[in-house]
Amino acid sequence: VDKSGQTYFTWEIYSEMSNKKDYDNLFKLVVIGDTGVGKSCILLRFADDTFTDNHISTIGVDFRFRTVKMDKKVIKLQIWDTAGQERFRTITSAYYRGADGIIMVYDVTSEDSFNHINDWFVEVNRYASESTCKLLVGNKIDKPGKVISTERAKEFADKLGIPFIETSAVESINVEEAFMRITRDLIGSKGGDAASSSSPSMDSGRQAAKRLSAAMPTDEKKTSRGWC
């Protein structure tokens, strides 16, 4: 965002785009959930180890890369941060295709965001592969006014048949652990066959983001302040 308030989509160029492959496996992760649950903050904390309480709601999609080492393997994670607004569902649903892992995030102080996980789960099952690993994340545990108990969320995750963890991007609690958990699950389920390429979805995502940015009126680009 520049001083005029105009939002621009930037796409970083990484060495993995060259012919030389500097990793053993590439996993595409998609982070979903309602607007305001802290998806972007979680991503920034994990990818860049940064946090800001001045953030702009994601418009369409954004992504980051991070390389980690696990089980003597070099794993490159391509992590997509999707908009939680209903109006962007058509755009963001395309990112489920080819996803290796889905991270569903809710705000532990928001009953609505927790209840909406059911809707997100249905959408994931509609568009993503059956082999896609999933993780439920309860964010903002540092924030006062928690209404979704750990026990309730754990019971819900058990019914869905997926793992669960609580996090705080503000205090950097369990963010690393959340991504390591789903990465470990992916290594266990996909093994050495997961060196997939996400280039097709990346290219289509860039085009979708450009179309979305060009069509977005200025009043949609609002800055909000709060916990992540």
TrEMBL record:
Keyword annotations from UniProtKB, A to Z: GTP-binding, Lipoprotein, Nucleotide-binding
Biased composition, class Low complexity, residue ranges: 192-205
Superkingdom, natural source: Eukaryota
PROSITE patterns: RAB (PS51419), RAS (PS51421), RHO (PS51420)
GO MF, any single term: GTP binding
Leader sequence segment: none
InterPro entries attached to this UniProt entry: P-loop_NTPase, Small_GTP-bd, Small_GTPase, Small_GTPase_Rab
Entry-linked NCBIfam families: small_GTP
Protein family: Belongs to the small GTPase superfamily. Rab family.
Annotated protein name in UniProt: Uncharacterized protein
